[in-house]
Design a protein that fits this description.
alpha/beta; FAD/NAD(P)-binding domain; 2 domains; seven-stranded mixed beta sheet; five-stranded parallel beta sheet; 9 helices; 19 strands; globular; binds flavin-adenine dinucleotide
């Protein structure tokens, strides 16, 4: 059997695409991964998804899944382990079964990189976060620490200064990888205190974060009282399964027509390099009929609602492409 649309990914982008495609009677199949749900499963309250003043991340995903199923999406909580986009219909394989589809939407998301401390995982959603835009609001007039040394850490620090009364920026080296302009902005901010040459070795607290343990190169330990820890050491898109089939950027994010245009404007590539992208479909990848949306494409906005919006755009592009 050949499906019309197959969606890889069961986070906000994939489920939003599924709702639209299912309502258009395209009977999408969706592979939500194992475990399913995506990044929102790692957080507690979400207060910035339109329509909900406050909702648990897991409940929001459950509502999206029910809505997608209600309109006829078939959801498999399974991983796609390989793809063949070299001929149509496209082939997607799980460890047990092969599926054929005329169009594919990839919404495989990304993973925040963590410090890999047991205490950090235990206190995730209880003071430990990887998203200042999402969780900064919970730290009004509190003291927080950001760990990292690149542009992401600078941006997270800048965002947190709008809420917290004091922000420590902790970096394990004595120089930052971030762009000079961002570093200067942070250095000038009176709410920020830099702690260089220090690593976070533990997060202290039972029910919520109380302090962090730091270690410097001279093996001296130091405890710093904080209400929150923001880990800003980077994100990794979940694109390995399509890495040989599609064009990805230097960091592994999928390039769509829209991203190709941005790369062209910013001088990263030449016109000849982006000619394969179809200007009619902003979410189409380097392969006609394969679309991508959400955090596996976007390394700038990274929000549930922006991922959902991109998912909708990809579903409409796929629908139009199938009609044509
Ligand atoms: C700690 C934390 C808190 C956050 N809080 C908020 C918040 O309050 N508000 C907000 O708007 N945003 C928040 N975000 C960001 C938000 O979660 C993401 O922007 C959003 O989930 C991205 O959606 P997505 O669908 O693109 O990807 P994801 O949510 O990452 O979902 C990707 C899905 O693809 C699946 N997948 C991956 N590979 C495969 C494969 N090979 N086969 C099958 N399935 C696969 C995964 O299992 C997953 O289901 C938070 C993020 C984090 C980490």
């Amino acid at each position: 059997m050949v499906n019309k649309i197959a969606i890889i990914g069961g986070g906000p982008a994939g489920l939003s695409a599924a709702i639209y495609n299912a309502r258009a009677s395209l009977e999408p199949i969706l592979f939500a991964g194992s475990p399913p749900g995506g990044q929102l499963m790692l957080t507690s309250e979400v207060e910035n998804f339109p329509g909900f003043t406050s909702i648990l991340g897991a409940d929001l995903i459950e509502k999206m899944r029910s809505q997608a199923k209600e309109f006829g999406t078939i959801i498999y909580d399974d991983n796609i382990v390989s793809v063949d986009f070299s001929k149509r219909p496209f082939t997607l394989s799980t460890s047990k079964t092969q599926y054929k589809s005329e169009a594919v939407i990839i919404t495989a998301g990304a993973k925040a990189l963590w410090l890999d401390l047991e205490s950090e995982q235990r206190l995730r959603g209880r003071g430990v976060s990887a998203c200042a835009t999402c969780d900064g609001f919970f730290f009004r007039d509190k003291i927080v620490a950001v760990v990292g040394g690149g542009d992401t850490a600078m941006e997270e620090t800048q965002t947190l200064t709008k809420f917290a009364k004091k922000v420590y920026l902790i970096h394990r080296r004595d120089t930052f990888r971030a762009s000079k302009i961002m570093e200067q902005r942070i250095r000038k901010n009176s709410k920020v205190t830099l702690i260089l040459n220090n690593e976070v070795t533990d997060v202290l607290g039972e029910q919520k974060v109380k302090a962090i343990q730091l270690k410097n190169p001279y093996e001296k330990s130091n405890t710093l009282a904080v209400d929150g820890l923001f880990v800003a050491i980077g994100h990794k898109p979940d694109t390995e399964v399509v890495s040989k089939a599609l064009e990805l950027d230097e960091k592994g994010y999928i390039i769509t027509t829209q991203q190709a245009a941005v790369r062209l404007i910013s001088g990263k590539v030449k016109m000849a390099d982006v000619k394969k992208y179809n200007s009619k479909y902003q979410t189409m990848t380097s392969v006609a009929g394969v679309f991508a949306a959400g955090d596996c494409v976007d390394h700038i906005y990274r929000q549930a609602s922006t991922a959902a919006g991109m998912g909708v755009a990809a579903s409409l592009d796929a629908e139009k492409w199938l009609e044509e």
